[in-house]
Structure prediction request, 393 residues.
Amino acid sequence: MHKPKTTTMIFSTIIALILSFSGWASAAYGASSSNDLKPLWNISHDSELDMFLQAPYHLPNTNTVYIHTNTWVNSETKSWMVSVVSAVDKTTGKKRWSFEFYKKGMPYPWSTSDLAYSKNGSVYALVKDGSGSKLYSVNSSGKQNWVINVPDAEELYSMSDGTLLIVNPSKQDSKGNRTPVSYAYGPDGKKVGERLLTGIYTIIDGQYVVSQIGSFGKSKLEVYGPKLNRLFTYTPPAGATIYINEMSWRINKSDILIRMNLPKTGNQLLAIDSKGKTMWVRDITGNASVQSIGEKYAVYENEELSVFGEKGLILKKALQVSDPMNVVLETSDNKIMVYSEDWKSVIDPTTLEIIYHVPYDEKQLNYYYVGDGYLYSVKNGYQLVQYKLAQIN
Prediction:
């Protein structure tokens, strides 16, 4: 894991009036700070116990930002944390609406999953309480679409076709054995599928559910669609070691890219199409880092960053990174992120030029790059600031 470096932030003077609304204080900012960050607005909760729980989510093709926070409700004996989703204006930070995943008279919530979002702006949450688990759907106007009782689960995914997938990674049967199980629900909340998985499974970019069966070197891959419909079974080359939950990606709209290791050959990339046919195999070095970038993929090895498309290598460039693991990440706007000496660098995959510098996290200060040059910081858990990064010349 990369050890972040400490940076120093100096905020600019507030030049706009504070806008207050329902437990928030929102302020607009003007001039940039000394480290080229440009604060635009902030939101500060009235209570230090009300926290920002996830990175803000920019709803595509809108001026709306979804923010996941919490509030508290009190019973006679204790306080219970309730998750809240709020929609704010991307330009000003002004709140448009909020929805609490709890209503008076219901059992108090024990836990809530990270929120999941659909392309049309619906928000989903998996809430556990004393009566079991509930799946919530909230529309882009902040109104509840529906809430349904669902089997016990911990993971929640919004799939590419609008299906919702929940997963219990360790369901216990009558004999005490634990097996992952997944359930699929349509956008209307109706159940459309159920599937037992193996101990090693993954959801690939909201398009595929893949379960790895058998021992390493002799495993098979069961591949399902978003509704848990079986698509195909794939048998990797004999002896191949694969960790499907860590080293698999979607590329070229519907192809699956997998990293594997063969005893005599070493590390390779394997591409299979949507019908389970092997397309190609490519050698990589043992310390190479691989990451899908939109429909393409990037490989960092031998101090070079390369971008590949459907027909092979598109471009490459010499690049030194400070991370000994050579980690290459994909940002939410399909850019490349690598760890540099003093910051995280956001790289344009079409030119391999650095376009933004993102600060490393500091003590009690976390940064979230959410795409298109927008950056958020969360200080002490309850103070949120939005910035617009200056593009690197």
Notes: Confidence is low (pLDDT under 50) at residues 1-22, 29-34. The radius of gyration is 23 Å. DSSP finds no helices and 35 strands in the chain. Residues 231 and 350 are 33 Å apart (CA to CA).
